[in-house]
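Cast an eye over this sequence plus tokens and walk me through the fold:

***
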Amino acid sequence: MNFFAVSSSSKVNSQKNALKKGVQRNLHQRNHFDSVGIMRETLEASKNPDTPCFKVHAVVEGNHNSENFNPLFSFLEGHDYRAEFGFLYRLRSDVLTSSTFTGHSDENELIAFLGVARETARKKRLVWAQTRLCFLLGKLCAGRSKFSQARVYFEEALSLPHEGFRDLRLLSSIYSNLAAVYLLQKNTESFFALTERLVALLLGIPDCLESLEDDCALKYILKKAVLSHNKMAEARACHLLAKHHWNRSEWAEVVPFLERLLVLYAVAQGTWSISPSHGYLTLGRLYNELELPQLSVSSAKRACLQPSATLTDCLSSIILILGCVNTEEEASIPPQLAPSLYQALSYTKVQGGGSDQDRVLIHQLTVCLCQLFCKHRMVEHAISHMHALVNYNPQSQGLSLHNHFYSFSLTRLILFFARSFCAIFSCLSLSLSFSLPSSLSFLILSILCSCIS
């Protein structure tokens, strides 16, 4: 008995591995990838972008060589946004001091250098260089808790471009930093007015979220939407907050806003143009990152049961569940896979399943699903699915060998049903004190096995 148990367990494990590889191959051919994994790789790749580094020259009173600022001016000047600016806008003050500028001994020397550069840009009428220098000086002063001086620099940066801002990410960065200063100085009137502008900009152009430093403005608009009972505005605020923390790779902070967004979608009864199945899959991957396997499995099951779910969503939920269930604790096919297997099998057949890839996938899904049915004594369902698999696309070439295997599997299922049936009669015979004739057991077994023909 131990030999057969070990052999059966090894076969199940090999089938689990084959299922996982087959599903991954199918997803790869459908150009589907893990969103959390892609975001992590993107963030890792963007940690050290190709941005210039500027040398800080010592400031001598009364002797300012404007040629020292030419590389900095040529980089900062320009109406439009560039990718290098985005990296500069996102940097914290301490990182800005150590990575972008070199040759200075402390922050005071850097601030003095940038202050002279700002005055030189003003004299040369380099408006955008002066604007971005004011922004950098404001960030450095705010990092040193000199909020009054930071406010002056940020307000000057807002007032300089008379023709308006074409670099909207710079505008959102100035709004965000200035709003944080207003909040720290308890200037609530200016904070609320500026926050309304910032949120309107973020709602219209979500890409500006990349340059947002904190979420105080977004949390304010979320609170305002909740108090006004505006579900649409609340959902939009939750989406922006989730995306903001997602861009910063703060997975734990993404979860509550994504959860609330999915709840709001359910309340709206599917009138919004979003895919809840994608949302639940993303939520499941986040739970997996936070080492919450049960919540991850639950989200994966919800994803494949959504009306908007596709075959790709069902296959993704299978991969997610297999990754969450501990193979050492669960030696057989995990029962949590049942909804995903059933839905994926249905979608595969609906889409035609004419290719060899689809037929292999149908075979793997059916075998795993039948094993789950047998394990939980639902043999009738297992036999039904095996019959459907044998009768599926009988005109296909090269499937005769598979059909023999399916018939053999079907025989094993019926024999298992026969043994279970006879075991029930044996229990009845013990309880009622009469023996079950061996001829009757043989007759039952013969009748059940005759169903194969």
